[in-house]
Amino acid sequence: MKVIAAIVTICLASAVRADVTCDDCLEFGGNMQAYLMSGESIAEQSEVLVALLCPQLEDPAGCETGIRTWWAGIGAAMYPVFLEPGAVCGELTACKVKGMVATP
Q: pTM of the predicted model, to two decimals?
């Protein structure tokens, strides 16, 4: 999970360093968030989590069942909060932040 957040942050940070506008950052962040929440991406994420985490546990089958059962809901709850484009772009200083709302 931290790996996905780190990749997104690096992508956004490199985009900000390329002198993109706040609107560009917000658009990219929204597109990234939408992609990560898509059914195809959630399925890919589940496969990666199962492959990386489950083999090293005592109950790999239970791990796989849990990930396949719950990851879509976890992603749907997590991505809108942790990858909210206004907050991310504000944190990266691509947008001026006033309170909790980013302004282009």
A: 0.70
